[in-house]
Amino acid sequence: MNASRFITLAFGLCSLMSTPCLAQATIQLPSVDFPRAMSLADALQKRRSVRDFTDARALSDQTLANLLWAACGISSDDGKITAPSAMNKQDIRLYVCRQDGAYLYIPQSNTLLQVSDHDLRHAVADRQAFAAQAPLCLVLVSDTGQFAHNGQLMGAVDAGYVSQNICLACTALGLKTVPRMTMDQATLREALGLSDTMVLLLNHPVGY
Q1: Nearest in space to 86 (alpha carbons), one of 162, 6, 10
Q2: How many Cβ atoms from other residues are within 10 Å of residue 23's Cβ?
Q3: Residue 119 in contact with residue 71, Cβ under 8 Å?
Q4: pTM of the predicted protein model
Q5: What pLDDT, in 10s, does the model give residues 119-131?
Q6: Cβ neighbours, 10 Å, residue 12
Q7: Which one is predicted more confidently, 57 or 90?
Q8: Nearest-5° angle of CA 127, CA 169, CA 113?
Q9: pLDDT digits (tens, 9 = 90+) for 124-162
Q10: C-alpha closest to that of 206 among 111, 133, 128
C-alpha cells in the first residue's frame, strides 16, 4: 500500500474513532480460506438475485471473512485488492450491518471496526422490508474525496465492481444476495459517521 493511501485510511479511522457515540470494538477475522469447488463459469451461470431470507442462520466468521475478501480484500503483497479501482484509489468502504451493530471492514488488517452498536438493517432495508430479514447487510460507500474530478461517477463505477464480486462470491459460498440502491440514507449517514465526501451507493442483504 502506498504512503498516500495509508495516510488517507489512517485519517479516516481517526475521524471514526473521534465520533462521540462510536463503539470501538475490533474483531479479528480468520484468515481467508476460500473454497475452490465452484468454477467461475458455474458461479456466473448460477448467480441470481434473491429477495427471501431467513435470519435463523447467521454467517460464520470464516464465511464472512471469505466474502469480505472477495468483495475488496487484499490480494497481493503490494496492497492491490480483488476489485478494480479507478487510479487504484481503493475508495470503496465496506460496512457490515448486523444485529449486534455496524462494522467497517479494514482489508489491510482483515478486521472489523465497530462504528455503531445499533442494528441498522432496517435502515438499510428502508421501504423494502425483506432486506432486514437477512442476517447481515453489506453497505458500499465511496470516499469520493480521493478523486480530483468526477468523484461520484468514479465511485459509482468502483462500487459496481465490488458489487459484482459480492454477487459471485455469495453464489460460490452458498449464500444469497441482491444488489440494491434503496436505503434510508439520512439514518445511515449519521449512524455510520460519514463525512460529506462519503457517498452511500449500494447495499447487499446477505443470508441463506
Answers
A1: 162
A2: 15
A3: no
A4: 0.88
A5: 999 999 999 999 9
A6: 16
A7: 90
A8: 70
A9: 999 999 999 999 999 999 999 999 999 999 999 999 999
A10: 133
CA distance 207 to 127: 19
Task: Give the dihedral sign, CA 191/66/74/157.
Answer: negative
**What tens digit of pLDDT does each residue of 172-205 get?**
999 999 999 999 999 999 999 999 999 999 999 9
Copy the grid coordinates of residue 166. Answer: 459480492
- Whether the CB-CB separation of 137 and 203 falls below 8 Å is answered with yes
Instruction: Please give the pLDDT value at position 36.
Output: 86
Joined grid coordinates for residue 157: 463505477
> Can you read off the three cell numbers belonging to residue 15?
475521524
Phi, psi of 27 (to 5 degrees): -110, 125
Residue 9, all three cell numbers? 485510511
Structural contact between residues 68 and 94, judged by C-beta atoms closer than 8 angstroms: yes
Cβ proximity of 153 and 136 under 8 Å: no
